[in-house]
Amino acid sequence: AMATLGRLNFKAGTDELTKSAAMAVKMAEALGISGDSSAHIVFYTKQAGINLDVMGDTLATIRENTRFTADEFGRFTQELGEALMIMGNISNYAEVMKNTLKIDDTLRQFTGRSGEYVDFFKRMATTSSGMQMSMALGMNPENLGSAAEQQRFLSSFGAYIDTITKNQPFLQQIAILEDLSTETGLSVIALRNLSKAAAELNSRTDQNISLDQRYANEVANLGKSLSSISESLHKLLAAGMWPLVTALSYVADGVA
After folding, report:
1. Which helix (H) or strand (E) covers residue 158, if one does?
2. What is the pLDDT at residue 224?
3. Which terminus of the chain has a lower count of CB atoms within 10 Å, N or C?
């Protein structure tokens, strides 16, 4: 399978469209996401001016160290790209994905829910009310792309919640958390556990893995590789990615 992939990439040569198409299929296979999601990732990566191989390795490491479903992972990477395009800050795409999804996955350990922090990030990044809220809570929306700033914000916000609820009667604690939930969009259980999630995040270490390694793990043999490439072509076709499909079909024919 890896030999075939190598031939596929070699055949792609220096043509950017063909290389993008090949990477879209490779990401779909290695990350287990849809052709639509992988095509959008390639598009945002190109818009960000980030090397596709570097982005692929970044995504592989995120996928390896988080517990999102394939659908969640594909959807969140696409939604974060859209948010950054609205912000006019797509150059931070790789870092924002890495940090935001890591925080979301960590928070999930305490809430059992995925996507809460992604939605919170999108609100802060793309709506006037969310930007005003983030500034009121001590986060400049322009710094949302910074890993250090996101972690500092999470820690300080969690500490603030602990302080204002400490020694309060239970009923008052819930009232405070409900008000904050209405303001932020985060659930009461997420707010209650925010400081714990921040502490867990600071102690968390991730294992690096390359996109090639994940591809090798996901694709067991040559037959599956060629079959999966065909399936991914249909996914890209269904997503309206005609140029990518045309280019990749030509390349795939050369290795079949």
Report:
1. helix 147-165
2. 54
3. C
What residues of the chain score a pLDDT lower than 70?
1-15, 219-256
Q: Are 73 and 66 in contact (CB under 8 A)?
A: yes
What pLDDT, on the 0 to 100 scale, is given for residue 161? 96
* Chain mean position to CA 141: 19
Residue 1 CA to residue 227 CA, distance in Å, equals 11
Distance of CA 195 to CAs 32, 135, 189, Å?
32, 19, 12
pTM summary value: 0.80
* Structural contact between residues 111 and 190, judged by C-beta atoms closer than 8 angstroms: yes
Residue 80, classified by CB atoms within 10 Å of its CB into exposed (0-12), middle (13-18) or buried (19+), is buried
Q: What is the pLDDT of residue 23?
A: 86
Distances (CA, A) of 129 to 122, 134, 237: 11, 9, 38
What gap in Å lies between CA 48 and CA 39, rounded to an integer? 14
Tokens 């095509």 sit on residue: 39
Of residues 64, 78, 80, 65, the one with CA closest to residue 30: 64
How far apart CA 12 and CA 22 sit, in angstroms, is 8
- Lookup: tokens for 31: 């990350």
Rounded CA separation 103/99 (Å): 6
